Amino acid sequence: MGRGRIGEQSPRYSYMLNPHSDVRLSKCPKCGKLTHLRKFALLIHIEAWGLLALGKTCRYCSRCELIMVHQGELEAELAQSFRRIAPEVIGKAYMVLGTIEKKAWQEGLSGRGQPPAKMLKHVAQFKKVYTLEYEPGGWYPADQGPRKS
Ligand SMILES: [Zn+2]
Predict the structure, then answer these.
(1) Going residue by residue through the chain (149 aa), what tens digit of pLDDT does each one get?
(2) Which residues of 28-63 are buried (b: 16+ CB within 10 A; e: fewer)?
(3) How far does the centroid of ligand 1 lie from the alpha carbon of residue 49, in Å?
(4) What distance lies between CA 53 and its chain's CA centroid?
């Protein structure tokens, strides 16, 4: 990605944002195998806020180690998280940066949140980031960096 690594863990997992509300990704768009649901702790950078750890159930292909996030669902959960604490943040640009080790994330939840610097020890940036594109010929993953705004 051409910039310094985020987090102190080795890069892990690939990430795909699914912007299509009518596509459920019950099959992996890369390998065609059935996906399953798995909960991840995602590290998200949000403009005017900073880093946020969000527990989110995602579609996952264990063969490709690919995490698929439904954009509409993610944005609804973000909006819900911020509705009470910082409504002005809703609708700002955001970027999903990587995953946080579940154990560290859960400890953060019970202990009123670890400071971001401490949390970064447990963060693994994604190896690859894709956006699901639609073409008349079918679905395919496009190699892309995280969206900037
Ligand atoms: Zn796959």
Answers:
(1) 445 677 888 999 999 999 988 888 999 999 999 999 999 999 999 999 988 889 999 999 999 999 999 999 999 999 999 998 999 999 999 999 999 998 888 887 665 555 666 778 899 999 999 988 765 444 456 554 444 44
(2) bbbeeeebeeeebbbbbbbeebebbbbebebbbbee
(3) 33
(4) 10
Which amino acid type is present at position 11? P
Neighbours of ion ligand 1 (CB under 5 A): 28, 30-31, 61, 63-64
* Spatial separation of the C-alpha atoms in residues 73 and 37, rounded to whole Å: 14
Q: Which residues contact 102 (CB under 8 A, 6 or more apart)?
A: 39, 40, 41
Say what the pTM is.
0.81
C-alpha closest to that of 14 among 148, 81, 31: 31
What sign results for the dihedral spanned by CA atoms 2, 51, 129, 140? Answer: negative
